[in-house]
Specification:
Blueprint: H1 16-22, H2 26-43, E1 47-56, E2 59-65, E3 70-75, H3 79-89, E4 93-96, H4 102-112, H5 130-140, E5 148-149, H6 150-156, H7 163-171, E6 184-185, H8 199-209
Parallel strand pairs: 1-4, 5-6
Antiparallel strand pairs: 1-2, 2-3
Helix pairs in contact: 6-7
């Protein structure tokens, strides 16, 4: 009877008759099944669950998250549009399931109700560019109750002339509220843009929630 040199070596029957008599062992079958499951898991796209928070102070809020963190927060959309946006954020499998992302739903809900002052949730930004990631991480450092400007964010990331590109990166922030792009305004103190049909009103509402009065 021969053995392989590997640590997880398996006895190899010397003859076909011996193989037929012995058949696969339970241990070898389990190893093979585990190996197959690992291969399948590695090759499948990550799974994202999504659900809606209806009737919040800023309207209906869609929330989507992977096992890594939040993938998407969006407003003013149909479910089909949300699914399309999740696909646009990366190569994901998608499932409507509030139970799997309840911790995110409850945290966002509590924040919008003013029951908690912080929203320190993990985010999954694997699909965005390094530049946009640097902009979003800089915006995330703006404290609650304060505002920064697009020009200041550009300086923070070492690209002082890129304030317009900073504005575009924040305009396409996949996880607003959690990454507080609403705290970034124009240098003259005017609001600048924000997501959704009611963008400016929503931005004002979030800033008011945090104790900042604009205009």
């Amino acid at each position: 009877m021969r053995k392989t040199d590997s640590e997880d070596s398996i006895d190899i029957p010397a003859t076909l008759d011996e193989l037929l008599q012995r058949g696969p062992t339970e241990a070898s079958a389990t190893r093979a099944l585990n190996h197959l499951n690992q291969r399948l898991a590695a090759e499948l796209p990550p799974l994202v669950h999504y659900a809606i928070l209806p009737n919040t102070r800023i309207g209906d809020v869609w929330v989507a998250a992977s096992s890594v963190g939040l993938v998407l927060i969006d407003f003013d959309l149909t479910e089909d549009q949300v699914i399309a946006n999740i696909h646009g954020a990366g190569r994901f499998r998608i499932q409507h399931n509030a139970r799997h992302i309840d911790q995110y739903l409850q945290a966002v809900k509590a924040y919008l109700q003013g029951k908690t002052a912080q929203l320190d949730l993990p985010v999954d930004l694997r699909a965005i560019s390094p530049f946009q990631r640097s902009v979003l991480m800089a915006a995330r450092e703006v404290p609650r109750g304060q505002v920064s400007t697009y020009a200041e964010i550009a300086r923070r990331i070492g690209k002082p002339r890129a304030f317009r590109a900073v504005g575009q990166a924040l305009r396409h922030n996949p996880v607003p509220v959690v990454i507080p792009c609403h705290r970034v305004v124009n240098s003259d103190g005017t609001l600048g843009g924000y997501a959704g049909v009611l963008g400016s009103k929503r931005k004002v509402e979030l800033l008011k929630l945090e104790g900042v009065m604009i205009g």
